[in-house]
Design brief:
- By secondary structure, the protein is α+β, with helices and mostly antiparallel strands.
- It has two domains: 151 residues, Creatine Amidinohydrolase, Chain A, domain 1 (3-Layer(aba) Sandwich); 230 residues, Creatine Amidinohydrolase.
- It is built from twelve helices and 18 strands.
- The strands form three sheets. Strands 7, 8, 9, 10, 12, 13, 14, 16, 17 and 18 form a ten-stranded mixed sheet that branches. Strands 4-3-2-1-5-6 form a six-stranded mixed sheet, with helices on both faces.
- Strand 2 and strand 3 form a beta hairpin.
- Helix 8 packs across helix 9 and helix 10 runs antiparallel to helix 11.
- The longest helix has 24 residues.
- The radius of gyration is 23 Å and the shape is globular.
- The two termini are 26 Å apart.
Length: 389
């Protein structure tokens, strides 16, 4: 059940963050502008991608949105399509919203001209495409890319953001519980998605991902969930492993679990035992000030058991797929960052333990909150290797 104190957020016609929270975000962005010696920010998104638009204005990007932020002025937001403008005006209450007409970037450039913008003093956050970048550069020269500093802002969550993430975690748990309760021989992998989404759609949740892996435990040929479902029907003796993220607006949870349709084989028991041990070891070292190298060292129980990993061991989450992104000792994810973990970060611990031939694997893990003294669970889905039927 969701905490009663969160119900007013969940049941609002259109939930919104407080004025103080929105002001906090704007002040943080304005500080980045000062540091970059810039006078205006152009922020953008397209095709439901570009978290900065919603973070600054409360408008979730649909087809396209391009905004202009200038210290001391109201934001201007240009959206596609014309029929999206009405709701954008309702949600983006602190921005002047207008139709982007034939080109939202052209409208935003006109707005920058009206605000007296000067060449080489424009910063950008969001996914500008080649045409948009060329149009901006032709008028204002080289823009300053603030995407990395923006990502750093999103790594630490405010108290209000954590409340929204708890709702997203609740929806993700509902999806995973519905999957667990609906698994049976004879249904297809496509039907698994139906089970998951029906668990939270009526309550206001939206799908981010639901990836499923299904393979016989006696002769496994799959170690990681597939991103697109097949028509394969589940059979007795299968293992089912899943990664599910459902969101409340732009705030998701993420939960990973494995289920056996029948008695697990020794291999799968060993795989999950190693995964559980890795999760517990990682959770034990995480706290404010912990270093990424400590996470990698804690997860060596995977290699000690004779296995490896197939996905990132840990990653930041909430506002994007965030740093730090860590692989295991046997499957690194790039250079090891040296910046410590900080209280207020939300990360997904996900030791996806697999055999070295990549034929068998399990999923376990979930998003947690890093605190001064350890980690706090956000999810309520029971952990463990569930045996069904």
């Amino acid at each position: 059940m969701i905490a009663e104190r969160l119900r007013p957020i969940l049941e609002a016609e259109y939930p919104c963050f407080s004025d103080a929270e929105m002001a906090r975000r704007r002040h943080a962005i304005e500080a980045l502008l000062v540091e970059a010696d810039c006078e205006h920010l152009l922020f953008c998104g397209a095709n439901r991608f570009g978290s900065v638009v919603q973070w600054l204005t409360a408008w979730p990007v649909t087809a396209e949105a391009v905004g202009v932020l200038s210290p001391g002025k109201r934001d201007a937001l240009f959206v596609q399509y014309h029929n999206h403008v009405a709701q954008a005006r309702k949600l983006a209450r602190d921005a002047d919203v207008a139709w982007g007409r034939q080109s939202s970037i052209s409208e935003a450039i006109d707005e920058l001209n009206k605000r007296g913008a000067r060449p080489d003093r424009i910063a950008v956050i969001g996914p500008l495409n080649v045409d948009q970048h060329s149009a901006l550069a032709a008028r204002f020269g080289k823009a300053v890319n603030l995407n990395k500093p923006y990502i750093r802002l999103r790594m630490i969550k405010s108290a209000e953001e954590l409340d929204w993430l708890r709702i997203g975690a609740h929806f993700s748990d509902l999806g995973m519980m519905a999957l667990r309760d609906g698994l049976r021989p004879g249904i297809t992998k496509r039907e698994l998605g139906d089970l998951v989404e029906r668990a939270y759609l009526a309550q206001g949740g939206t799908n981010v991902i639901h990836y499923f892996g299904v393979t016989p435990m006696g002769g496994p040929q799959l170690a990681v969930p597939a991103q697109f479902p097949s028509t394969r029907r589940l059979q007795a003796g299968d293992v089912v492993f899943a990664e599910i993220s459902a969101a409340f607006w732009d705030y998701p949870g993420q939960v990973l679990r494995s289920f056996a349709l029948g008695k697990p084989t020794p291999l799968y028991r060993d795989l999950h035992t190693a995964a559980d041990a890795a999760f517990d070891a990682i959770a034990a070292v995480l706290r404010d000030g912990a270093l990424p190298e400590q996470v990698i060292e804690a997860a060596r129980v995977i290699e000690d058991a004779g296995f490896t990993t197939i996905d990132d061991l840990l990653h930041g989450y909430g506002g994007g797929y965030l740093p730090p992104i860590l692989g295991s000792a046997s499957r690194p994810a790039g250079p090891l960052p040296d910046e410590p973990f900080r209280a207020g970060m939300t990360v997904v611990i996900q030791p996806n333990v697999v055999t070295k031939d990549d034929k068998a694997g399990v999923q376990t893990g979930e998003m947690v909150l890093i605190t001064q003294n350890g980690v706090e669970r956000i999810h309520t889905m029971p952990r463990g290797f569930a045996v069904l039927g």
